[in-house]
Design goal:
- There is one protein chain.
- By secondary structure, the chain is of the alpha+beta class.
- It has a single domain (6-154), classed as Beta Polymerase, domain 2.
- Helix content is 54%, strand content 14%.
- The strands form two sheets. The protein has a four-stranded mixed sheet, with helices on both faces. A two-stranded antiparallel sheet has the order 5-6.
- The protein is globular, with a radius of gyration of 15 Å.
């Protein structure tokens, strides 16, 4: 698949808004929307874990072109901790329980709105990467922290 790009983010934003889905961009795709100069292969989303939001999310994903099986739709509706979707117009990770972030409501309060994109605050993105402790996340952390300093100075 091609790298995550702005057009994909726009499609997500616009269709999720039509369906009333509550979510945040997280991970490197969230950092990229904040201005982080990097690439990623997928969009990472942190949806609110409620049954109603899950149903809305399933409808929105299908409208986007994701071929969800009934099993996948049920996982989305119940808010399975992590769901990787590869059968669609782009790769998408749904992270209902990101490492390092206790509650969606807290992350929602700290969110940053970038051109209508609800994005996790850079501190939450960094906390999640640090808590996951995966090698690829440890590698990007120094650059994310450096970007944080720059980003905070521009606010």
């Amino acid at each position: 698949m091609a790298a995550f790009d702005y057009r994909q983010a726009q499609e997500i934003r616009d269709i999720f808004a039509q369906h009333g889905v509550r979510y945040l961009f997280i991970g490197k795709s969230g950092a990229i929307l904040l201005g982080f100069p990097d690439t990623t292969q997928d969009a990472d989303l942190f949806p609110e874990r409620t049954a109603e939001n899950g149903r809305r999310l399933v409808s929105a994903l299908r409208q986007l072109g994701f071929a969800l099986t009934e099993s996948q739709a049920a996982e989305v509706e119940r808010g399975k901790d992590f769901i990787q979707l590869k059968k669609g117009p782009f790769d998408l990770d749904l992270v209902f329980a990101p490492d390092g972030i206790e509650r969606f409501a807290d992350a929602w309060e700290r969110r940053v709105d970038i051109e209508g994109f609800p994005v996790c605050h850079i501190d939450d993105i960094i906390a999640s990467k640090a808590a996951s402790n995966r090698a690829r996340d440890r590698e990007v952390l120094p650059r994310l922290r450096s970007f944080r300093a720059y980003w905070m100075s521009k606010k």
